[in-house]
Amino acid sequence: MDKIFVTRPLLPDIKDYEREIEEIFESKWLTNMGQKHNELEGKLKDVLKVPNTSLFNNGTIALLTALKAMNLPYDSEVITTPFTFAATPHCIVWNGCKPVFCDIEPNTMTIDADKIESLITPNTSAILGVHVYGFPCNVEKIDKIAKKHNLKVIYDGAHTFSTEINGTGIGNFGDITMFSFHATKLFNTIEGGCLTYKDDNLKRKIYNLRNFGIQSEEVVEDVGINGKMNEFQAAMGLENLKIYKQEQAKRAKIKAFYDENLATVEGIRIPQMPKGVTNSYQYYPIVIGDEYPVSRNELYNRFKEHNILTRKYFYPACTDYECYKNDLTVKLAYLPVVNDLKNRVLCLPYYGNLKEETLEFICNFIKGIKG
Ligand SMILES: Cc1ncc(COP(=O)(O)O)c(C=O)c1O
Fold first, then answer.
1. Atom 4 of ligand 1 has which residue's CA nearest to it?
2. From atom 8 of ligand 1, which residue's Cα is the shortest distance away?
3. Pairing of the two strands 53-56 and 193-196
4. Domain architecture of the chain: domains with CATH
5. Which tens digit of pLDDT belongs to each residue from 269-308?
6. Which of 104, 211, 311, 344 has the largest count of CB atoms under 10 Å?
7. How far is it, in rounded angstroms, from Cα 187 to Cα 229?
8. Which atom of ligand 1 is nearest to the CA of 84?
9. Which protein residue has the closest C-alpha to ligand 1 atom 10?
10. Which of 81, 170, 182 best tests ligand 1's pocket when mutated (most atoms within 8 Å of CB)?
């Protein structure tokens, strides 16, 4: 069998992208908030149902800038989860703050809001939740805690493109939310990202920070960075905006197939989306329990022997990284759910053009495993 990857990038018809590129060549405007950039930034407000969007060259720089825009005191503590991609805690450290790692909920695998308050100290400045795999954090509880303790709330929504909670775009919760438009994400701009926020006053601050802090030809207002999305990225976004819903519809069918075939397999748990939440269709994670004949790692290896490349997201946990594991706070952190689930979750291949015969093979393979 040819290699089956965990995902494949969403690509528009090449003719449509060529037309976009021709327009860029005609305009001779390649980057620095060009026409396509501005068009995409505007359109995304409607798609994400948010009042403000700011585009970025990638999600990591967007998150870095989100934290910077919150003016968190140097050396303050930001409560987050280690069950995420490296970028999440790295952005905290690059902002001169300390990540304090909180455990996660077993179903949504997002930060356990009930465990946040015990980690708050006089030095805590913010909570950084991750809507992992498209499952939303407990935004209501986090909001209450943040208000009570006067903390900023930042969300890493890299996996939640177009997710809504009871009809509200997920980018409206907290002070600011980051979306990633990396090639592996459901909606991609090759590399790219976006910040969404309710406070209109943040617009100018973020605009500056994304462009070296330059306010005008002779005024540099902030210590900014180069976070600008270029026109070729924006063009890809404009074309992918036209087709992402078709991709979601295809993935919805794949999800239904997996759900139907795997729900009754002993030892396999399929995490459920909370009521009222729309699915971004970014990942399809399953949890391998003790009743399953082999471990998650063994299942991963056996799939690999058949050229099926599943992913052990998120293994290792960020608290296992060389750069974090020796910190005293990390050594003392109590993370039973993270340390269990990091060895149990497997993300299955999940993209619109996955063939039915491959899907059948994957499901039968999981059902047929012997210890
Ligand atoms: C949870 C999470 N946060 C942040 C990022 C970083 O985004 P980017 O790759 O666009 O920099 C990613 C993935 O790429 C991610 O999965």
1. 87
2. 59
3. antiparallel
4. 14-102+110-238 (3.40.640.10), 245-368 (3.90.1150.10)
5. 999 999 999 999 999 999 999 999 999 999 999 999 999 9
6. 104
7. 15
8. 1
9. 59
10. 182
Residue 179 · residue 157 · CB < 8 Å:
yes
State the distance from the centre of ligand 1 to the C-alpha of 365, rounded, in angstroms.
30
Q: How far is the CA of 274 from the centre of ligand 1 (A)?
A: 23
Ligand 1 centroid–CA 60 distance in Å is 6
For 176, other C-beta atoms within 10 Å of its C-beta total 27
Q: Any idea which residue has 């990038």 for tokens?
A: 9
Ligand 1 site, residue 206, Cβ cutoff 6 A: no
Q: Determine if the pTM surpasses 0.85.
A: yes
Atom of ligand 1 nearest to the CA of 182: 10
* Nearest-10 crossing angle of helices 14-27, 35-48: 130
Q: What is the pLDDT of residues 301-334, one digit of tens each?
A: 999 999 999 999 999 999 999 999 999 999 999 9
Beta-sheet pairing, 77-80 with 124-130: parallel
Output the DSSP codes for 190-248: SS-EEEE-S-TTHHHHHHHHHBTTEEETTEE-S---B-PPPHHHHHHHHHHHHHHHHHH
Percent of residues, the chain, with pLDDT higher than 90? 98
